[in-house]
Design brief:
By secondary structure, this protein is mostly helical. It has four domains: 69 residues, no CATH class; 278 residues, Rhodopsin 7-helix transmembrane proteins (Rhopdopsin 7-helix transmembrane proteins); 31 residues, no CATH class; 73 residues, no CATH class. The chain is 60% helix and 3% strand. It contains 13 helices and four strands. It has a two-stranded antiparallel ribbon with strand order 1-2. A two-stranded antiparallel sheet has the order 3-4. A hairpin with a 2-residue loop joins strand 1 and strand 2. Helix 3 packs parallel to helix 9, helix 7 runs antiparallel to helix 8 and helix 9 crosses helix 10. The protein is globular. The chain starts with 23 loop residues before the first helix and ends in an 11-residue tail after the last helix. The N terminus and C terminus are likely disordered. It is a multi-pass membrane protein. It is found in: Cell membrane. One of its GO terms (cellular component) is plasma membrane.
C-alpha cells in the first residue's frame, strides 16, 4: 500500500539498469507505466543528458554530455486512447461518489439516531470517516497522477498525499480489529463490563495517533521535483530504494497481515461459539432472539473484513512482485495492471455502506430515510420506529440471568392458634406459571447454564441488531 499517491513509490529502481541512450523512450515509457520513483526518473534523464546529477541524489551516474533523445519526448510517454481514459475515469468516479456519499450517510445514521449509538457503531463511524476521507482526498488525485505522470497539486498536497492514505487505511483496518475484539469479549466473556463511551473514544484516538506515527516518514521525506516538461511528487528516503522497500514491507505487515490474523482468530472462535453453542431443545425466546442478533452482526463484520482483504491483496502483490522482479515494470501492460489493482483497493471504501444496507435492518431503514425524496423509496412506519424507538433496556442484572440462578421461593405468614402475632412458618410455593420469560421449566437448568452466554447483564438485544 505504501504511498498511495502514485505507483512511483512502489518500485525499487525497476527498469533503471536497462535504460540507455539507445532505448530511452522505451525505458521512460516503462518507468511511467510502473510509476517510477523520482530517483529512477533522474537516472533516466541523466542518461539522456537532460539533467545533471545533484549531490543530494545518491548513486547517480554522471550526465552524458550529448543528449541522445529529443527533450520533447519526455513529456509524452504516458498516452492512452481516449476511450480507455474515459472508462478508467468513469470507474474511479463511481468509486469516489459511492464511497463518499455512502459513508457520510452511515455516519449520519449512527450519530443522528440515539438507538444506533452502540460501541460497535462508534467504531463503524471511525471506519466510515477514514474510508470517505481517503476516497475524497486521495483516489482521484492519485488516479490523475498515475494517468499522466504529472503532479499538478503543489508541494503541500504532495506531502499530504503521501501521508494521509497510510493513516486512513491504518484507521480503517484497526477499527475493524477493535470491533472484532469487542465482539469476542461480548460473546466469549459476556459478564465483563462493556467498553464505555469514554473508553471507546480513547481507543479511536489511539488508533489515529498510531496511524499518524506510522505514516509520518512519508510526510517527512516527501518532495516535488520540477523537471523539463514534468513535475514529480515522490518520497526520497535518505538511504535510497532499499530503505523505502523495507518501510513498505513493514507497512504491509502492520496494516494488512497482522490485523487480518487477529480478526481471523477472533472471528473463528466467535463463529464456533455462536454457530456451535446452541443447546438442543431450549425454548427460551430471549435466548434465540439474542443468538440470532449476534450471528447477524458477526456475519456482517466477517463480510466487511473479507471484502477488505480481497480488495487490497492484488495491490500488495503488485508492489512485491514489481520490486522483486523488476523486469515486470517494462511490460507493455503494467500501467493497466497498476490502475486495475489500485482501483480494486480503492473500491474497498465503497462496499461497506452497501453491506450494512443489505445485512442490517436499521441501516437499511436509515438509508431509506436518507433517500426518501426519491419517488420509488418508501419508508414504512415500522422502519421509522426501528430508528426512533428504543427497546426495553435491562438493568445491570438481567432478569433472566437472575431468575435462572435462584429458586422461586415465597414466604407466607400464617397465624398460629396460640399466638396470631408471634408465630410463622415458611412454605415452598409452586410456580404461578409453568414458564417464565418464554423458557419452559424443563429447560430451566439449561437456561441457567447458558444465560450468561446469551444475556450479559451489561447488554441488550439493541447491541446486536
Amino acid at each position: 500500500m505504501g504511498s498511495l499517491s502514485a505507483a512511483a513509490n512502489w518500485t525499487d529502481g525497476a527498469g533503471m539498469a536497462s535504460a540507455n541512450a539507445g532505448n530511452l523512450s522505451a525505458a521512460l515509457a516503462a518507468g511511467v507505466a510502473a510509476g517510477a520513483t523520482e530517483t529512477e526518473w533522474l537516472h533516466l534523464l541523466v542518461q539522456a543528458g537532460n539533467l545533471s546529477a545533484s549531490s543530494s541524489e545518491p548513486r547517480l551516474p554522471a550526465a552524458s554530455p550529448e543528449p541522445t533523445q529529443p527533450r520533447a519526448n519526455l513529456t509524452n510517454q504516458f498516452v492512452q486512447p481516449s476511450w480507455r481514459i474515459a472508462l478508467w475515469s468513469l470507474a474511479y468516479g463511481v468509486v469516489v461518489a459511492v464511497a463518499v456519499f455512502g459513508n457520510l450517510i452511515v455516519i449520519w445514521i449512527i450519530l443522528a439516531h440515539k438507538r444506533m449509538r452502540t460501541v460497535t457503531n462508534y467504531f463503524l463511524v471511525n471506519l466510515a470517516f477514514s474510508d470517505a476521507s481517503m476516497a475524497a482526498f486521495n483516489t482521484l488525485v492519485n488516479f490523475i497522477y498515475a494517468l499522466h505522470s504529472e503532479w499538478y497539486f503543489g508541494a503541500n498536497y504532495c506531502r499530504f498525499q503521501n501521508f494521509f492514505p497510510i493513516t486512513a487505511v491504518f484507521a480503517s483496518i484497526y477499527s475493524m480489529t477493535a470491533i472484532a475484539v469487542d465482539r469476542y469479549m461480548a460473546i466469549i466473556d459476556p459478564l465483563k463490563p462493556r467498553l464505555s463511551a469514554t473508553a471507546t473514544k480513547i481507543i479511536i484516538g489511539s488508533i489515529w495517533i498510531l496511524a499518524f506515527l506510522l505514516a509520518f516518514p512519508q510526510c517527512l521525506y516527501s518532495k516535488i521535483k520540477v523537471m523539463p516538461g514534468r513535475t514529480l511528487c515522490y518520497v526520497q528516503w535518505p538511504e535510497g530504494p532499499k530503505q523505502h522497500f523495507i518501510y513498505h514491507i513493514i507497512v504491509i505487515i502492520l496494516v494488512y497481515c497482522f490485523p487480518l490474523l487477529v480478526m481471523g482468530v477472533t472471528y473463528t472462535i466467535v463463529g464456533i461459539t455462536l454457530w456451535g453453542g446452541e443447546i438442543p431443545g431450549d425454548t427460551c425466546d430471549k435466548y434465540h432472539e439474542q443468538l440470532k442478533a449476534k450471528r447477524k452482526v458477526v456475519k456482517m463484520m466477517i463480510i466487511v473484513v473479507v471484502t477488505f482483504a480481497i480488495c487490497w491483496l492484488p495491490y500488495h502483490i503488485y508492489f512485491i512482485l514489481t520490486a522483486v522482479y523488476q523486469q515486470l515494470n517494462r511490460w507493455k501492460y503494467i500501467q493497466q495492471v497498476y490502475l486495475a489493482s489500485f482501483w480494486l483497493a480503492m473500491s474497498s471504501t465503497m462496499y461497506n455502506p452497501i453491506i450494512y444496507c443489505c445485512l442490517n435492518k436499521r441501516f437499511r431503514a436509515g438509508f431509506k430515510r436518507a433517500f426518501r425524496w426519491c419517488p420509488f423509496i418508501e419508508v414504512s412506519s415500522y422502519e421509522e420506529l426501528e430508528l426512533k424507538t428504543t427497546r426495553f433496556l435491562p438493568t445491570r442484572q438481567s432478569s433472566l440471568y437472575t431468575v435462572t440462578r435462584m429458586e422461586s421461593m415465597t414466604v407466607e405468614f400464617e397465624p398460629s392458634e396460640a399466638d396470631n402475632t408471634k408465630s410463622s412458618r415458611k412454605k415452598r410455593a409452586t410456580p404461578r406459571d409453568p414458564s417464565f420469560s418464554g423458557c419452559s421449566l424443563r429447560n430451566s437448568k439449561s437456561a441457567s447454564t447458558t444465560s450468561s452466554f446469551i444475556n450479559s447483564p451489561y447488554t441488550s438485544v439493541d447491541e446486536y441488531s
